[in-house]
Structure formats: structure tokens, C-alpha cells
Amino acid sequence: MQTYWTNLTPQHRRSWLLVVVYVALLLAISWLDFGYNTAGQTVFRGILLGMLVFLVASGLSLIFGLLDVLNFAQGAFLLIGAYVGYDIYHSLDASVEVRFLAAIGGGVLLVAAIGAVMEAGLIRPLYERPIFQIVLTFGLAAIFLDFVERIYGRNPKQPLSPPPLLNEKFTLFQQSLSVYRLFIIGLGLAMMIGVYILLNRTRIGIIIRAGVQDPEMVQALGINVRRVFTLVFILGSALAALGGIALVPYQGATLEMGNQFLILAIVVVVIGGMGSYEGTAVASIVVGLTRAVAEQLSLEHFDAPVLAETSILLLMIAVLLVQPSGLFGRGE
Amino acid sequence: MIERTVYRTIDRIGDPALRRAAESLARLVLENWFYALVVLVLWQFPAIVADLSGSEVTPRRPTGESAFWQSEMARALVLACLAMSYNLLFGYNGIISFGHALFFGAGGYITFILLARVDQSYQQEALIAVLAVVLALAILTRITARRLVTLALGGVLLVLLLVPNTPGMTFYQAAALAVLGSIGLSLISGVVTLRLRGIYFTMFTLALAEMFFVLAKSGTFRNVTGAEDGLGFGDLLPAALNPTPTGDGSRLQMYRVTIVFFVIVFLAIRRYLNSPVGRVIVAIRENEERARTIGYNTFFYKLLTMIFAGVIATLSGVLFVIWATDKRVHPEMLSLKFTVDPLLHTLIGGVGTLTGPVVAALGLILGETYLRNETFTLETEVLGLVPLWQFAVGLIAALLILFLRRTLRPAIHRLAGDGGRWSVLGAYLALWIVVSAAGLVAGGQVVPDLDLQDEVFDVSDLWDLFLGIVFVIVVMLLPHGIVGTWNRFWITRRIRRMERALQREKAP
Fold first, then answer.
1. Are B406 and A324 within 8 A, CB to CB?
2. What is the ipTM, given to two decimal places?
3. Is the residue at A281 inside a domain?
4. Total count of domains within chain A
5. In chain B, which residues have their Cβ closer than 8 Å to the Cβ of A263?
6. What is the pLDDT of residues B417-435, one digit of tens each?
7. CB B353 within 8 A of CB B484
8. What CA–CA distance (Å, rounded) separates B325 from B243?
């Protein structure tokens, strides 16, 4: 019988085992060290962070898998989404629900439009010069950051209040949390499953997956693969913007946010393996958990945030030393 | 013209030894006279500015035009050195590192942490550490006894030279240790990262540099790095290197030291590139597989270039901190800014050209300083014809069409029908007019609301935007940068001329 498991390559099977063992280890450490309730809170925070990172990282991974362009502007897209959403939320004159939905819609649409123009106008003419594509996205990220700073100023923005429905409290592991955190996790899960269905169950998805394998062959079969490229780029940038707006009610908006999440997303994509969707999904949870547990550990034992800040990087170095193409990447 | 006359005259010399000497002298002068001229102008720059503005070259207090431009020019030269080192990696070896700021910041931080925070002697500890490393090497590796002794002696000598047995440290010892630290950093990061392919390497360097940025800003090490406020070092600089005028002419002296540093860096990079190693790294850029197949250990050459570029960046970092007006090392030195800036300078000046990064760095940094206090309004007219903002709208529309031309091509050809080249051009023109008109109408709707017409803009506020636009235009349209395009222009011309001469010879 053919199952998911039997279809995997031995390398990927080993990676799955590694991930399961590692996560179990993290859970065990946090339970033994922090006690049941704190451990639960930490794990919840980790999953939350993982979902947010996933929104940025999935775009990065999808775009790289199909277009071979590493989009360093992904962090800037998150930033633009957050600030524009914040702006729309505060400039509209309607009920909170409408303003919240408008913020999400407006931010995502604007960033999608920026992504479309960027792909069609700037990245597409550079396919013959791949180094310049990377340099261009890197430079554009700096420019976008500058734009946002110029328009909205240096001061961090306060978290905005989500609709009352999402602002209610619930108790988990003896900690009172707002439902909004559940909403973020739900959003992340929905996107994870949505993109999975898009990739595996639709016609466009099969074209994308074929394009990852061999774009020239797809073109030869009479499919306008360039249009699919643009579509994937738009999808990736929109996901990042969505992550940005989802962040604002949770922790406000700061200029550093873009780079922070870009670094996290890069670590996720490297750990998961470039261009592998399941790798990105798994790695974002792993990175989120690692970060949260390290934060809690350094809080309880070392009184120093350094461990938390460097933990995911150490994780990335470890994974690269064990498997240079990431956990679920295509082996060389 | 002059060249030909000189070489013809030399050819007439009878004595072969004398002829060879004259030839190499002539080559030296003919190939370097321009650079020598530039250095001369730089050397006399404070005096020139002083003459033009009527200020003093060596004022007692750091005021006046000449003193101001000395520090600005020095800072631009230091950043030009940083750009040259980045170009060595990116332009000549094809390594795209997004973590170059790491080395720049390491120079500033290591030097001044050692200078400001070390208040006792660590000589014994350092000696013990060297011996421990040697012992570990002896036990763990199969190193030959001879190399082991050399290593041990070298290590002990270095420690005796660089770590004093009196409390504290001199600036030069600290800077030398920073260079050693930078070499170590290149070795460690290079061994881990250079084995990664292309994009993995780039991402890894970015993450690594960002990690050190976070560490430098982190409050955990506040008593070492000073966290976000930076590390102040007060008056610990030696008198010879202190650009703040305390006595007479100390700033001018430091300015000249900076020029000497710049010249040395330039010559060192040129020597490196003209050496056999330089040929190999260019070969690696062109095709790494092939270079490896020929038998070169490409990893070694890449690591060597990384170390070389890292050391230059480190020394630039030290000089940059010396010129800081507030006498502090800021965590900003490790931020992305000092990776993006050299990258911009390299791209705009010309990737893989020796002088490109220098031209771009000096032009852009000094240009920004010069225009810093200028202002303009949108009512200013361009060439006395069109208001500035209308001109800007038209320009943006043109650029938009230019960049989208591949996407637009089918639609344009449908519009133009079979009318040939002129109707295609007409269709583009019509599109431009429509887009500009739409932009003008939309702008007319928006502008009165925003009151942009009366607002006074500072150039320094919009400088980054300007840089961004230049960057995009260069990447899209001028892939060889300013100097690269200039070189290509002359080379193409010379080739055409030679072709024509050949044809003329063939004709009869």
C-alpha cells in the first residue's frame, strides 16, 4: 500500500524522525524545567510565533522554489502591510469590525499590487542576470523600509484593538489570553492548509509544482509560465502582508519588525529546505517553539535575553552542518 | 598619442639594460599619472577649500569650512575603502555576502572594547591560551613537530608584542588584535559558510551579521558594548590619530593618515588582483566548476579573498570610529546600512571595476553632504520650462513604461498594427502621454489636499529616495555601472577603429 510515509525518500524519513525527536525533547525539557502551566504557555507562544513566521516564510519558499529568486523584500512587505493596515484602521469612520476587515483587505491588496508591479517590471527583465535579481530585492527592501519610515515616522505604533469578538479573554494553562491569539493561530493554520490545497488539489497548483521541477518544460507544454510566476509572487507578497497586519493588534508596529521576521523566515526556509512547502511548515513550528523555549529558559535561569536571540541561529548552523540542503530540501 | 611618442623614443635607446629600465619607468608613469594627480588633489584638498572659503586649514577649534570638509572627505574615503573591499568579494570573486557590516563593525568594536575596557594585564592568560591551543593541536591532529614549534613561537611572539604586561593596552595593539580577530572571524565563518552553495551562503551571512547586530544592541552586555548607546572611548586615542584639534593641526595630520591608508588599500587591492591569485579568483567568478576542474582549490582562494576583504573592512571600521564626532562606537556599525551602502556604491560605480566603488562612494557621500542643507519646493521649474512635479510625473511614467515594456509589448503591437517601427514608437508615445496625463490629473487631485505645492522639502530628507531611484535605474539599465560603462565605451571605440583599419588594409 502506498502511503505518505512509504513515498518519502530515506533522507526525508530521517528528517521527520529528527524533527519529532527534537520537538519531543523541547517539550520534555520545558515540562520538567518550567512545570506544567508555564510549559503550556511557552508552547502556546511558540506555536503563535511559528504561525506568524510561516506567513512570511511560505512566500519566501514558494517564490524561491518557482522563480529561483530569493525575495529579500519579503520582510519589507510585512512592514508595509502592517503600517498600511494600521493607517486604514485609524483613518476609516466605521465600526471596529469593518475597519479591521478593511485594514486586512487594503493592506493585502496594496502589497499584492506592489508585488505584481515589482515582478512584472523589475524582476522579469532580470532573469538573464540572476545575481542582480537578489541584489535588486535586497536594495528594494532598504528602499521600502525608507519609504515607510519617511511616511509614518520612526516612532513605534501602538497595538490596535481587534473587533470585540476577538478581544474576549479565555483561560489557558491558568493564563488569561485574548481570543485574538487563537485567531492568529487559526489564520496561520488556514493559510497552511489553503496553500496546501492550492498546490495539491487545483490545476494552478499542479502547474506551480511542475514549474518548480522544470519551468522550460511547462512552457513547452503551452502554459504561460511567466504569468504563473507573477501569480506566485503576488501570492507570496500577500501572505507576508497578511502576517504583518495580523501582528499589529498583537504587538503594534515597529520599523525593526520587517528585518526581524525576514531573518526568522530565512532561518525557517534554510532549515526546512529551499522550495519545500512541507519543510517550511514544519520548520516554522520548530523555530517558533525553539525561540519560545529558549526565551523562557534564559528568563528563568540566566537573566539574559542573549540565548533567545541566538538560539535559532545556532539551530540553523546545526541543521546546515548535518544536512547542507535543509531538512526537506532536494538533495544534491 | 603621447604614449606612442614616448615608447618610440625609448625604442631608440641602444643599451638594452637602460632601455628596459626606461621602459618600466615610462610604464609606471603612464599608467599611474592620473591616480597620482588624484592623490595630489586629495592631499591639497584642505588648502584648496581653505583658499576658496577663506577659512583656516588648521584651526584651533573644529570649525570652519576647511576643517569640516577634511572630516567629510576622510569619512568618504574610509567608506570608499569599505566599498572597494566589498567589490573585491562581489565584483571580482562573485561572492555575494550580505554580512559585510560584520567585519566593519568588528573593527570598531574589538579595537575600542580592548582600548576602553581592558584595565589589567592579560599577558599570562594569553600565553596559557596559546600553549593550550598548541597542546590541543599536538594531541588532536597529526601536525608535524616543525610546524608545531613554528606555531608556538609565532603565537608567543604575537602575545608578547600585542598583549602588554602593564595594565591597559595601546591603540595600535588593540587595532592589531582587531585585525587578528577579523581574520579569525573570516576563518570560522568562511569554513562554515563557503561550503554552502550560492543563495544559502548569502542568507547565512545575512543572518550571522544580524545576530551580531542584535548582540551589540542587547542589554546583557551593557557593561562591555554599552548596548544601544554605544561605547564611548573619550580621549583614549593617541595624539597622532586624534582628529579633534587639541593642539595645532592634529585633524590635518589625521586627514593625511587617512589618505595614506586609502592609497595603501587601493594599491594592495590592485596588486592582489594583478597577482596570480587575483587571476584565479576572477576565474572562480566566471566558472567555479571549471576552475576546480583545472585543479585549483577554489575553497582556499575564496577564503583568502574573504580574509583579505575582511581585514580591509576591519581597518576601515577602526578609522570610521576615529572620525566619529561623538567619540562613540554605535551598534549601527553592525547594521544592514553598512552592507547596503558598499553594495550600492559598488553597483552604481561599476561591479568589478577598480575605481568604480571609489567614484560612487566619494560622489554620493560628498554630494549628500554638499546638498544637505539645500531645500526646494515643487514649484521650482526644470530648465525654466516645466514645473518640477509635472516633470517628475512624466519621468515616473516614462520609467514605468520602460520597465514594463516586455509585459506591454503585445498590447503595443496590437495597437500599432502593421505600421512598422514608427507606429510602434507612436503607440509608446501615446501610452506615455495617457499615463502622464492620468498621473497629472490624479496628482492635481491629491496635491492641493496635501499642500505639497507650498511645502519646502529638505534635500537630506529625500536623499535616500533619490539613491533608491538611482539604484533601480542602474540595476535595470546600466548593469556595468558608471565606470564600467565608461570603460566599455572606450574599449568598443578602440575595437571599432582597429576593425576599420584592418578593413582599409584589406581593401586594395
1. no
2. 0.80
3. yes
4. 1
5. 206-207, 210
6. 766 777 888 888 888 888 8
7. yes
8. 9
